């Protein structure tokens, strides 16, 4: 198919590169892999470069190169530094996307439009219904600014992390790392830092660790003022915590702040209301659907919106995986539009599993194939033969748990 890919940054990858979330997350359960297709081709290309040794931790800079190569090889027309800011809708059908660029604003027309903004920006602009938050307030899961520390003595750092983890699980509701408590008492960390323990996660580069636990609360990723405030606050906290690590945490005595995400890592914002809404029960019961087009096995990982409830984690049984129905990719009311990634149709809790990158990538491949087949067969995506879609995905090497 003829494809134009609109990208707001100067490189591809989104959360994985701009957000520096250099960990793909689960896509294997009890030895069974449940996401293949384009996602796994990316993993394999990174591994060939030595940039993803364990299949999960990866080098974001190498990922930028790999994605650029893959898009070029596929003949995709790429528009970088282009912000998709609106939609052209004619009689309930989306026919184009309004793009803001350094050259000028213009409209990109398409027979099928796929919204992979993560925030459902285009779907919302086109008039699709969406949900935010959890029904209790307007705020989704908290956001996090990822950062990396280099020149770390991993042996000492991981040994202390293990001792800390044992103590935390012995007292999960009230645990505070004694080093953090000591730093707060000494005035080296403010009481409102929003961190009770730290989890250094080894990165793909030797002697380097990633931190993904400094949560920023009450962030609305669809509001520029909220995002601005969160970015500024995130960097303030990264500075404080990186200084704390060098002064207090074993193994960080000679470490330095190597890099910080270009943008805040956003876990959740808009969830577009589709023809079907995925639920937590669907996830945890490993439900299969006749129109399943992607699969996942990631735990439901829900970070508090306000810092009062901690992190909820619910896991599927080992070896089990769920399907995501095609209907979750089809927004109500708007034709010629598909959504993929963390803005597909799901409840607040279910999105805690669907948002992980391997699963989000699988919905991306499903949406892309659906869009191409819809154009080829001259039908809107809503009328596409879903069995043809499933067959085509399987022929491409994608995985659908219920179609085994």
Layout of helices and strands, plus pairs?
Layout: E1 4-6, E2 28-29, E3 32-33, H1 37-48, H2 60-73, E4 77-79, E5 83-90, E6 93-100, E7 106-109, E8 113-115, H3 121-125, E9 130-131, E10 143-144, E11 147-150, H4 154-170, H5 178-186, E12 201-202, E13 209-211, E14 215-216, H6 224-248, E15 256-260, E16 271-272, H7 280-284, E17 292-296, E18 300-303, E19 311-314, E20 322-325, E21 337-339, H8 351-354, H9 357-376, H10 386-395
In short:
This protein is an alpha+beta fold. It contains ten helices and 21 strands.
Tell me about this structure:
- With about 400 residues, this protein is an alpha+beta fold.
- The chain is built from ten helices and 21 strands.
- It has helices at about 35-50, 60-75, 120-125, 155-170, 180-185, 225-250, 280-285, 350-355, 355-375, 385-395; strands spanning about 5, 30, 30-35, 75-80, 85-90, 95-100, 105-110, 115, 130, 145, 145-150, 200, 210, 215, 255-260, 270, 290-295, 300-305, 310-315, 320-325, 335-340.
- Helix 1 packs across helix 9 (about 355-375) and helix 9 crosses helix 10.
- The chain is globular and about 65 Å long.
- The mean pLDDT is about 95.
